[in-house]
Amino acid sequence: MSFKTLSTALVLVAATAAAQAQAANPGVEQLAAQAGVNAGDFTTSQLISLQNAINSQNEEQVAFILSQARAEASRATTAEGTTSPAYRQLEADLGVEPGRFSPAELSQLAAARRSDEPARAAYILSGENRASAADDANNAGKLQLAAALGLNPADYTLAELTARVQDLND
């Protein structure tokens, strides 16, 4: 087989695979439509889990699955700053400012309201639940890891120190 023929065959195989990947299965499209999300952002398994969580009214599971969307970032926002319809719906149901809370925070807020814990809900709404840079600097675990490695804790994040310990143990 000549190089030209082989190259053409590879291009055709790649193009066919790409076209098949883009063509959505009607069942997947239907699952996504029922859940109010974009089919291309979730695997079939995620869509089934999302639908089950919606049916059982498990807001924590719904928020977690929505946070796992392929096209979404940690706060379920795209590069353009828009959010998925399901994420916006969860924000609207909870009556919070769009884009202000992460999916995990929305789950915690929903659980606090469901459990009738107004103090916990107020704490989440205040934003005080978020760790600050000062908290990281005073983390006892970080200080201990840095001391064990003989490093200055101010020069490294906790993740970097943990990675160094793992490198030493490998």
Summarize the structure.
The chain has 170 residues and is mostly helical. It has helices at 3-22, 26-35, 44-55, 59-67, 85-94, 103-114, 118-126, 133-137, 140-149, 158-169.
Low confidence ranges: 9-23, 71-82
The overall pLDDT, averaged over residues, is: 74
What is the terminal-to-terminal distance? 46 Å
The tally of strands reads 0
Provide the structure class: mainly alpha
Number of domains: 2
Major sheet summary line: none
Shape annotation: extended
User: Portion of residues in helices?
Assistant: 55-70%
* SSE order: HHHHHHHHHH
The value of Rg in angstroms is 23 Å
- SS element count, helices: 10
Organism: Cereibacter changlensis JA139
Protein name: DUF4142 domain-containing protein
Signal peptide: 1-23
Keywords: Signal
Structure explained in plain terms:
This protein is mainly α. It folds into two domains: 3-126, no CATH class; 133-169, no CATH class. It is built from ten helices and no strands. The radius of gyration is 23 Å and the shape is extended. The termini are far apart. Keywords: Signal. Residues 1-23 form the signal peptide. This is DUF4142 domain-containing protein.
